[in-house]
Specification:
DNA-binding transcription factor activity (chains A, B); 3-stranded mixed β-sheet; transcription (chains A, B); two-stranded antiparallel sheet; DNA-binding; Arc Repressor Mutant, subunit A; 156 residues; homodimer; 17% strand; Fur_C (chains A, B); zinc (chains A, B); globular; alpha+beta
DNA sequence: TGTTAAAGTGTTATGTTATAACATAACACT
DNA sequence: AGTGTTATGTTATAACATAACACTTTAACA
């Protein structure tokens, strides 16, 4: 997915982003973020505990992992997938521009996640339908249960 | 939401539907379904345990409620909302025609759920974007976090 | 009508995800 | 050093969900 080299670069970049507005990307936060990036997929908080132990021999209690994930989410470095109760690294960490609300395709077989941008027009159509029904969208992040082509090929 | 009269009619109808292909809508299943319909909103399995106790003085263990909800889902009488880990009665129980995949608007404040149909064209656009990304939609059920107008008015 | 296989339910244990509440450590600034 | 703030540790518990196995009811039919 990413080489160690690449990950270090991404982490450095993330650190700069945090610093730019006074947030601190501490050691533990780095470990969690690194593990998540390295895995290249959606992981639960408890998966991350195991990975940090495996990769870095660090025991991070569940409570801390949840707090760290919340921090990283606020920093827009990770996204929480409510459909799967899992977390993924933002696929645009290294870009500097602002992003719209992301849409996620979650492979139910291998947990790989693809972050895509859907046509603004499609989204605004959706929003329209929602408002017709007397609701307001809080969050236009869509999460869709999918199967990726690679898993589909394997099972065929 | 529904009068007792209406609920009884709906239950009777549901029972007929089940019978038509050899499934049984047992007493406990009726109690769970009634409670869900009566509430008019999305409830967790554990909410339903409480409601069945309250409404009918019946103690239904968690395990049974989950089994019953699974049965009702297979019968297309209820839908599972993965975003909220809750369940809602299908809003079309009494129709006899087949329905497409439903889309849900979930009010994050009061848990009311609206089941809407989104333009087929919007959905097929979505599907298209997904396939472009190398994924296949397993399930085009969308669940969207919203706030309903009534809650929004209250907070204003 | 009695036997039986399947379906439904009960029961207990356990797994998984998430948060509350409170204590301590580390850091940053004076 | 003193103080405020942020991060982390620790323990307990809430909330959601399933596994495994036993017992009971139902309907089906010899």
């Amino acid at each position: 997915m990413h080489s160690t080299q690449n990950i270090n670069q991404i982490i450095t970049h993330a650190e700069t982003l945090c610093k730019s507005h006074g947030a601190r990307l501490t050691t533990k936060r780095k470990l969690v973020l690194s593990s998540l990036i390295q895995s290249g997929k959606a992981l639960s908080a408890y998966d991350l505990i195991d990975l940090c132990k495996e990769n870095f021999n660090e025991n991070i209690p569940a409570m801390s992992v949840y707090r760290i994930l919340e921090f990283l989410e606020n920093e827009k470095l990770v996204h929480k997938l409510k459909l799967a109760n899992k977390y993924v690294a933002c696929s645009h960490i290294t870009c500097n521009h602002d992003h719209g609300v992301p849409q996620f395709l979650i492979c139910g077989t291998c947990d790989h996640v693809k972050e895509i941008s859907i046509n603004k027009s499609t989204i605004s159509q959706l929003k329209n339908d929602v408002e017709q029904a007397g609701f307001q969208l809080i969050n236009s992040q869509l999460e869709m249960n999918c199967i990726c082509n690679s898993c589909q090929d394997k099972s065929a």
